[in-house]
Amino acid sequence: MHRCMRPGQFKAIHVIGSGLAGSEAAWQLAQAGEAVVLHEMRPERSTPVHKTDRCAELVCSNSFRSDDAEHNAVGLLHEEMRRLGSLIIRAADTNQVPAGGALAVDRDGFSEAVSAAISAHPLIELTRGEITLPSDDWNSVIIATGPLTSPGLATEIGRLTGEQQLAFFDAIAPIVHRDSIDLDQACWFQSRYDKTGPAGSGADYINCPLSREQYDAFIAALLAADKTAVHEWEASTPYFDGCLPIEVMAERGPETLRHGPMKPFGLTNPHRPGEKPYAIVQLRQDNRLGTLFNMVGFQTKLKHGEQIRVFRTIPGLQNAEFARLGGLHRNTFLNAPKLLDETLRLKANRRWRFAGQITGCEGYVESAAIGLLAGRFAGAERRGEAIAVPPPTTAHGALLVHITGGHIETIDAGPSSFQPMNVNFGLFPPLAEAPAFDRKSKLGRSTAKALARKSALTARALADLDRWIAGSTAIAAE
Q1: Domain-terminating residue out of 300, 330, 360
Q2: Does 347 have pLDDT greater than 60?
């Protein structure tokens, strides 16, 4: 229920950036009865990768990754966000496209749904224009400008923190028109191990098979192709390992891709029964109509002409028409363990909070989850409530600990080794005791043991989350 507003009674909380984190933060605040001004610089100032002025535009993959809430940390994060009333997950759930066990979305429908909800909320004012410096009379600000923070604001953040901004390169994958893919002779629909999901049938990916000779030729062409040049001052900037360009992976060894995005396991070629492909290129549905498919794991910094030439050597893609080619952009993030407190406030200016990828989390879902927490923390602070952070046993809590205090600095005085991180079970505190598992499982003892451990971690997380929600509700009611 929204709190009634009297003119001048409350000062709005300002949220800068209407990406996934900013939109989620604004939504959480407004749903709790707080007035919000959500600032978005697009379309007055765009970025190298955005194409629209909509909220929560997806610029890389259209996948929110696994939706398995029992055995996968990001699936657990999905479920926690559902229980916390997440706008981002609600929009994802209502705009799903088939993707096996993953939660993938129609990217246009998704961003339109988020934009419509933001625009319709009576306590959210969406304003356009670049903010290079939050006003001194804004006593509560959430900066959720993402990895592509505008230069003016990034400069001001650097001046205030005294920290040299860390950076890494991020790459996006090409998107192919489905009707240009050869499904009659070369490719087929199948999810790995025929796995189904909430919006899937078990045959959700287009698979392009390569023989050993074709794979070797593809790797050779990939390594020889012209890449986009980087500036000299960017030469030492690291990549985020979860989004490596395929040519960078190929440079690590000729078999790297075959054990990564091009692994052939769990797939059978109906065009050649009994013949196992040496490697596979998978494409995942990118829009609700099923007319566009994303090349899974094919982030790249190849020049556009080279992408067309090299990718058309893949069987089934010889006549591929590309709706979007891959690209490369520079991302920045804070040395958050040093700069932010446990409620995401900037230690050097406690009027400012940060949310999303700029804090050092990685991934759409993780960014939105940190936006959710920032919104809740800012709202509780505005109401004068004690702020209770989520338990570290939850996915939200584990991410927050990584960002604000879970990183161990090196002893030397060199640059921080803090790096962006996807949510994963390695961030969770260990279980008090090892759970029982089926020692006679057909999956094998090690797999059965691992699944039992993950099930126990997720059960603990959701129980602790529910207690945290109940406790936060009780505090708000006092």
Answers
A1: 330
A2: yes
